[in-house]
Every structure is written in structure tokens, then in C-alpha cells.
Structure of Major facilitator superfamily (MFS) profile domain-containing protein:
Amino acid sequence: MRKNLKPNIEYAEIFWTHWSVYCVVASFSSVFLLANGYTNTEIGTMIAAGNLVSVAVQPVLASVADRSERFGVFPVSILVTVIVMLFEAVTLILSGRSFLLSAAYVLMFGFQASLQPLLNSMEAKLARRGIGVDYGICRAMGSLGYSVMSAVLGVLVVSAGVRALPVAGEICLLLLLGGLLLLGGRFRKAGSTASAGSPDIKEKGSISMGEFIRRHRVFLVINIGILLIFYDHQIINFFMLQIFQNVGGDSGNMGHYYSIMTILELIPLIGFTWLTKHFRSSFLLKVATIGFVLRGVFMLLAHTPTAMMLTLVVHPFGFPLFLPAVVRYINEIMDEREAVRGQSLYVIMITVSAVAASFSGGVILDTLGADALLWICAVTCVIGAAIILPLLDRAKTDSAKTL
């Protein structure tokens, strides 16, 4: 298998536009919905509902993408993108608080989030057709695209108003659709060439959900640990301002924190292919899990804005390393008939952690305060790591026995 420029550009463009759409739909959701007359409580409820839609939709899409010979990962991704475009068009047409706008936004949020496991699974699907792509660099382009889109939207909203948001969303979705069509066409062409040139290459029978669970029981337990360590990460996403205010900081400190955090995330993502040549994916996942714990503990111990900023020193060893490592790990322990469901399962855990953090974080802050919230985050990280670390190698062994 050799890597060439065109599929890498197409895969990177897919990640760039996907995370640009996420920036429009999720990160600027409050901006758009507040301007349309929604309250903060209603916005929080809609975001939670969108995450729940994603949790419900992802297993269905993953099962279809894994089991259907006709509707593989690329056709399903294209279909989901078109659905999101339709809901985005509704938010462009409608203005003002209404049931239809609320429903369209919740469904758009849910379906857009459900794309992530489909995109993650494409690397393994492409590799099995002899198309080499660098997941780490392509995923890094997603983070970079998110950062650029954040800056662009900040200017657009000021100069053109919130109506610019759904317009920007539709443009990015159209570009995403184009990337999926190009890379999907390359994937189909490689499949037909491989089938014609090698009669041994045949798809195995599909795997039912029951069989999937039987083959990966240890991995299911690992996902409970993933939910727990990501609870801390989601709290940081949702309530970082309150955490900084607790140590005497302000929104300026929060902005600097996020800016530095985004830059640091590019380092392990771009260097991930080099890391995999020297370390096993299970080892990298262990390092990333410990990175989550260290940041949780360091944030608990930080009592000034400067100390809080210094906690970012361990960030590259946590979340941004975990992202490509878990994708590679899942692709290693699962075959092509179940890869999308594997990717979907861990994304569902992250989504559930977001729902739990959004609901519980505010309550804990209002009743117990930021210090108590950081204690809870540190404890959940430690418990999650205690579940994940001893099971990573065992999950690979158990999966191999059932192949």
C-alpha cells in the first residue's frame, strides 16, 4: 500500500469541512439561537437533545455501513451530509423562535455529530483497498479548519449578522459533499480493480450486533472508562470560563487557553504516523489516558490563572493523542465488517459524556462550586483510567481469539 497526494488531500478536505460545519452548528449555536429569541435554558436543552439524537442515530448508521454491501461508509456519509444540508436550509429560511426551527436545529445537530465515526472508519476502509492516507495529518486539518472557521465566523457575525451562519454552514456542507464524492469514487474504483485483479478478495459475511458484542465484551467495558475520562474534557469545554473565574481569571484568559490548546493539539496529530512506527497503538492509548488524568489533577491543584494555563503542558499527551490512537486501535482489533460500529461506540460514549457534563456541570457549579466540580472531574478521570489501562491489551487478545 502506498500513500499518494490526491486521496490525502481529499480526506483532509473532508475533515476540514466537517469540523468547520461543527463550528457553525455546535460552537456558534448559542449565537444563532439567542438571536432568534431562545433562552439559555432552551439552548442547553436543545443541545442535549441533539446529542441524544446522535446517540440514537449512530448505531443504526454504523450497522448499515458495516453490514450493507450496497450502502457502505461513503454512501451513508453522503446521505447524512445531504440530510444535514436540508435541515441547515430550514434554519436559513426560518427566523424567530418556533417549533419547526427548534426541531430542525436539534436534528441537524444530531445528524452532523453522527458523521464523526463514519469519517474515522474511512482510513481502515481505504487501507484495505490499497489507498494509503495519513489519518493524523488529515485529522489535524480538521482542528485547523475549526480554528480558521471560528475566526472567520466571529468577523462574519459582526459584519453580516447571524444569517451568515447557516449560509456558511451550507457552503461548508457543499464542500464536504464534494470531498466525499471524490474520495468515495476513488474507493469504489479501487474496489473494482482489486476484485478484478484478485479473485481471493471477497467480502466476508456480515456480523450481527449480538455477534459484535460477543466478540468485543472487553472493549465494551473500556468504553465505560472512556465515558468517565471524557466527562472531565467536556466540563472544560462547557464551563472553562467559570473555572478561570474561580481562580481570579476572566474570559480573556479562557480565550488564550483555548487558542494555545488548539495549537498544541496539532503536534501529536501531525506526528501520529511517526509515533505509530515506534509505539503500539495500545501503548499510545495508555499514555493518552494518563494524560487525561494528569490534566485533571493539575487543574485541581491550580489556584491562579497562570497555573491554570500551565496545565496545558500535558494536553498534547491527552485528548489530541487519544483521538488518532483510539481510531487506530479500533481498526486493529476489529475487521472491516464491524469497524464503523466500533468507531461509533466510542463516539457515543463521548457524546453521552457531553450530555452528562452539560446537565450536571451547571448544577454542581451552582450548588457546590467550581472546586467541587474539579474534584469530581479528577476522581472520574482516575476511575476511568483504572478501567481502561489494564484492559487495552486484553481487548486485543480477546478479539483475536474470536476472529
Summary: The radius of gyration is 21 Å. The beta strands are 2-3, 131-132.
